[in-house]
From TrEMBL:
Location (main, coarse): mitochondrion
Reactions it catalyzes: D-glutamate = 5-oxo-D-proline + H2O
Gene: dglucy
D-glutamate cyclase-like C-terminal domain sequence ranges: 296-610
Enzyme Commission (EC) number: 4.2.1.48
Subcellular location as annotated: Mitochondrion matrix
Keyword Glycoprotein assigned: no
A GO molecular-function descriptor: D-glutamate cyclase activity
Coiled coil: none
Entry protein name: D-glutamate cyclase, mitochondrial
Pfam families: D-Glu_cyclase, GLUCM-like_C
Length: 617
């Protein structure tokens, strides 16, 4: 039936329609909020401040029953299957008609807000099962722990809908719904409901429980029932809303119909990626940004020493690691490979410059950052950090820590406040060119020399982190004996010289293979910068809250200034040499400049990275 025919049926009040999910296919549906005219301006501003849950379709004049831009011959007093009546913010009744309130409605304003029911039929036509329609029930709606941007008396949490989606359909669902901002746009979260403060998906605050099918992933959209929460927070003497799930049916065609039949531009085409299994968490970025980061991954994977490191490569590890880091708030970085075991200090130059580059970009993105290193090298690294700040390699000194693992639960207490796994200090650990423990418990350089006596058991932090929900880990390496590269240990054993002996046995969630580990750090910094400029990712990162604004000029300048450069690498290598640190890589052309070995291939790579990154500005 057409939407106008359905409205006519609803007016008869013997229709038996319990909710409008699945009805009026191809047409927009609308949430409804009706308030006294004295509150109208603030509520409109509240909608504009929170466009994902409250996409405003139309604001009526006081006492206006119709909504000409949305539907002909409409009467908001009788055109919804059911209404909620609120007095002083409390729900006092549910009614099928507002005709008895016609006198009060003369001084009230109706707001029509977009609804996700609008795109359900389009999803079905695209081959996506819509479980609530299949189960002949209302969609599940949940009050979250996310606070909307408040305006005046309107201060409330956001409400979301949950739809189970088969994992292989996530990209398609994200692409169809992203192009329907007036129906809440794309998902604001995919994965564990607890991330939104939802403890039990079988007990929604509004609507009905919807069962997940085999292979389904819970996906969440901002929801117009946020308007109901707004009414309750404002506590007006009298207000009305639609009853959740009982929408106003418009005559306006659903824009998702056009979205599903057109090929979106790469900048407007979201792709989804799993970034965590415990808890389950997916992230989103545009197709254009994904390709840019894949280009960076290819650049850092160049093999100057022709050691066959491509055998260790796993596609999209850089992308998924950086998506995870983008969602993080506190990051712990570790580096240090004492390959020159007969010298003092035994460290090599590969690792610290990349670690500083990562830290600089994370700082610019307002993340908390710390570095953990071997206790014997702590003072030297503190001096290196001070010099890096003085030379402008990094803006602010990063706190330096050491870990020695003096007791069985040392790692847990280091990673979590009071040893409570529900209160982690860090949500991501990054190891770059850090000695990794082999299967026999020793640590080896590429020549197979055991350097265990020079290495603190920082690996324990990674193995313990794997047991703590909410902490992800990344390893960056160029040979397979680095911390975190245990994820590809079988390939290391098969393809790398001395692989069966030196292969790191400790796996990270993400293992990034680079021609030189520093390059992996530089690539990570550039990828994080690219993600910061992706509107699709930023909207998802902020759960659809607030207006989607591009970065300010000051933000943009701070992010760009944090990126690696040839000048910064030269300064950093010079600082390391001044503190006695030696190069650990062979097989690349080098040139001696004032006692400093500098490889032209490094500068070429940085230039490539920056050129590719600048294309995303």
């Amino acid at each position: 039936m057409s939407s106008s025919a359905l409205r006519a049926l609803i007016r008869k009040k013997n229709h038996g329609i319990e909710n409008t999910s699945g009805l009026a296919a191809g047409y927009q549906q609308a949430n409804v909020v009706i308030l006294h005219k004295s509150l109208a301006d603030d509520f409109e501003a509240f909608c504009h401040a929170n466009p994902s849950p409250l996409p405003l379709l139309y604001r009526s004049q006081p006492g206006e029953w119709g909504c000409p831009p949305l539907a002909a011959d409409a009467d908001i007093r009788v055109d919804c299957p059911q209404y909620c009546v609120f007095k002083d913010g409390l729900l006092v009744s549910r009614v099928s008609s507002l005709m008895s309130y016609s006198g009060q409605l003369q001084d009230m304003v109706s707001f029509y807000l977009g609804c996700s029911f609008s795109f359900e039929r389009t999803l079905q036509k695209a081959g996506v099962p819509v479980r609530n329609v299949e189960q002949n029930c209302n969609v599940s709606m949940f009050r979250t722990s996310l606070q909307c941007r408040g305006v005046g008396q309107f201060q409330c949490p956001m409400v979301v809908t949950m739809r189970p989606v088969p994992e292989e359909k996530l990209d398609l669902v994200a692409q169809i719904t992203h192009l329907t901002p007036l129906a809440h746009g794309g998902p604001i979260h995919i994965g564990d409901p607890a991330v939104l403060g939802i403890q039990d998906v079988s007990r929604p605050e509004y609507g009905d429980p919807v069962a997940l099918g085999p292979g389904d992933v819970p996906a969440f959209w901002a929801c117009g029932v946020t308007g109901v929460e707004a009414v309750q927070s404002c506590k007006p003497p009298l207000a009305f809303t639609h009853s959740p799930g009982c929408m106003f049916l418009t005559d306006r065609q659903d824009s998702s119909v056009f979205a599903s039949t057109s090929t979106p531009e790469p900048d407007q085409c979201p792709l989804t990626f799993s970034i965590s299994q415990q808890p389950l968490h997916f992230s989103v970025a545009s197709k254009a940004v994904v390709q840019s980061i894949r280009d960076l991954e290819k650049i850092i994977g160049e093999d100057p020493g022709e050691r066959g490191i491509r055998a260790l490569f796993v596609q999209d590890e850089l992308l998924r690691s950086c998506l995870s880091l983008s969602h993080s708030s506190s990051v712990l970085i570790t580096t240090g490979f004492p390959t020159h075991y007969t010298h003092n200090p035994p460290e090599e130059t590969d690792g610290p410059p990349g670690a500083i580059a990562i830290a600089a970009t994370l700082q610019a993105l307002q993340k908390e950052v710390a570095i953990v290193t071997d206790h014997r090298a702590l003072e030297m690294n503190q001096r290196i950090m001070e010099d890096a700040v003085k030379k402008g390699v990094i803006k602010t000194a990063v706190p330096l820590l050491s870990y020695q693992g003096n007791s069985p639960d040392s790692a847990l207490y280091f990673l979590c406040h009071n040893g409570d796994h529900k209160k982690p200090r860090f949500d991501h650990l990054v190891a770059i060119e850090r000695s990794g423990r082999a299967s026999d418990g020793n640590y080896y350089n590429m020549r197979g020399v055991n350097i265990k006596h020079l290495v603190d058991p920082i690996d324990d932090l990674f193995t313990t982190a794997s047991t703590i929900p909410g902490i992800s880990t990344t390893g960056i390496g160029d040979g397979g004996n680095e911390l975190g590269m245990g994820k590809v240990k079988e390939a290391v054993r098969e393809h790398m010289p001395n692989g069966s002996l030196i292969a790191c046995d400790v796996a990270a969630d993400f293992a990034i293979t680079a021609g030189v580990s520093n390059w992996g750090g530089y690539g990570m910094a550039c990828a994080l910068y690219i993600l910061s400029l992706c509107p699709i990712h930023q909207r998802y990162l902020h759960k659809g809250l607030g207006q989607p604004h591009p970065p300010t000029q000051d933000q943009h300048q701070a992010w760009a200034a944090s990126l690696p450069s040839v000048a910064k690498e030269e300064e950093m290598l010079s600082i390391l040499v001044q503190h006695g640190v030696r190069s650990g890589k062979t097989g690349t052309l080098g040139m001696e400049v004032d006692g400093l070995t500098f490889h032209p291939t490094h500068s070429d790579l940085i230039i490539k990275l920056r050129d590719r990154t600048s294309q995303r500005k």
